What does this fold into?
Amino acid sequence: MRPVAMDPDYRRAALTRMSAETQNILVIGGGVTGAGIALDAVTRGLSTALVEQRDLASGTSSRSSKLLHGGLRYLEQYDFGLVREALRERDLHLTTLAPHLARPVSFLFPLTGAAWERAYIGAGIALYDTLGGARNMPAHRHLTRTGALRLVPALRADALRGAIRYYDAQIDDARHTMEIARTAASYGASVATSTRVAGFVREGERVVGAHIADLENGETFTVRAHQVINATGVWTDDVQELVGRGRIRVRASKGIHLVVPRDRIIADSGLILRTATSVLFVIPWGRHWIIGTTDTDWNLDLAHPAASGKDIDYLLDEVNRVLRHPLTHEDVEGVYAGLRPLLSGESDATSTLSREHAVATTAPGLVTIAGGKYTTYRVMAEDAVDLAARALPGRVPDSVTDRTPLVGAIGYFALQNRRHELAATSGLHVVRIEHLLGRYGALTEELLAMIAQDPTLGEPIPGAEDHLQVEAVYAASHEGALHLDDVLTRRTRISIETFDRGIAAAPHVARLMAPVLGWDEERIVREVEHYEARVAAERESQRQADDLSADAARLGAPDVRTAVGS
Ligand SMILES: Cc1cc2nc3c(=O)[nH]c(=O)nc-3n(C[C@H](O)[C@H](O)[C@H](O)COP(=O)(O)OP(=O)(O)OC[C@H]3O[C@@H](n4cnc5c(N)ncnc54)[C@H](O)[C@@H]3O)c2cc1C
It folds into this structure.
């Protein structure tokens, strides 16, 4: 298997292939669930196509807390099976599937109550460490108040009596989802973004394919398939309704996160804090912290959920309860909001709804999968393909995705050990090489080859100096990016990791992408204007008091894909 370059030629060929040949499996939705399904199906030897209406991971899968975790708080709900399964997935990613993207992260759990609290929380964390045989992580440790303050000097001394330190894992969700899709494409799946399912092809009651709109040029086409799988997260009901009401129903719960620079909180560990209804994480994220999250019902625009001023104030208030130097609005570099696709009808309180998933044949020929969480996407994918496979002729092999490393993982450990040599031969500082290895894994060699051809690509991106220019080019030439927003928001996180939210970098990134995507001057200007309008609308929405006005403000900027296609 050779890693495929997902460039415009690849997209054209994928579209031709999927419309010309009946597929075994057509997957709708390029979030982590849909990408996982495409990889599961194609590696079982099934012909597979994946369509995504916007960009890979543009829905919930780029907007999570980015933790691969068992969910400490599910222990309180006695959901041991769910926790064990998720911890197994966490460890699989650290060791085999995506060791270049997944990394351990330390959390401090401050204790505030009486002695029994240490015993109670300690027992839970000890169980967490053992469930799933979590041997890839350092074990948890009990700390005194002094020990905890030494680790996290940012904490107010009166905010804790002691603490427990434990470990989990984190991953760049958007890059990971994209890489799953790219791995699927490398095994032969036809993957196309900017393709929206607008209706189903029916033979009697049976679903035998889908009518699809290409949002890049406004054309429509049809893909025929033996089985169609609806993996559209919070859009599940909308897609299901194209064939009538189904058994699985999903509702959206909004969670927002803040990004602040690392120096605003002096700490050598992340934090997990109890709130009235849930928990709050302070998560190390490169040279930044991610603080989140909230949990509120959302019935407004699904594509662009808006964070309101109230959401932001809530997170600042919660984290400031324990910080010696409170954070202010001026400390916030980035804000993002996402929607949890929750199976509906189990409980009225969103925070107590289970993150477990449901999979069912909701119409003949149509499998629907929903719910779950990021960490367990691979298990969800396996379940969905197992169910679809029952309706396919012949015996379909079992899933092999627990043994199928993502494209950047193959050879990663060896390259990591050779990083000083790579620095010497490329002329880049070893810190830059480590940055590339942590984002591209073994595919770093492809980026270094591009720099060798054109050394200017080894220069930093003006306005986003943490990234090299080659990353913007590579996103368009190898990673399926079709718009400026794809690169600034998901291939990189420039949109939340800079105080100007990527405005200064935007024109430079657009010019780097232009030759690959065949953009003329007018198109470059249009992409930049779109991005600027999006940032302005987000900033405006974040000044609004409530969801309704925040949503209205966010809708002031149209989606770049809708505008191109119309
Ligand atoms: C705030 C927050 C924090 C979270 N934190 C964590 C965490 O730390 N760890 C964890 O394990 N989980 C976490 N989760 C949960 C996790 O992010 C989600 O469960 C997961 O990302 C859902 O992925 P998905 O593929 O099902 O949905 P999505 O990522 O939303 O993908 C669905 C895709 O379908 C596409 N689509 C919709 N309609 C159509 C159509 N008609 N045609 C074509 N395509 C279509 C959409 O554009 C979208 O890209 C969090 C969720 C939230 C909201």
About this structure: The first strand starts at residue 23 and ends at 28. The CA atoms of residues 265 and 457 lie 33 Å apart. The chain has 21 helices and 20 strands.
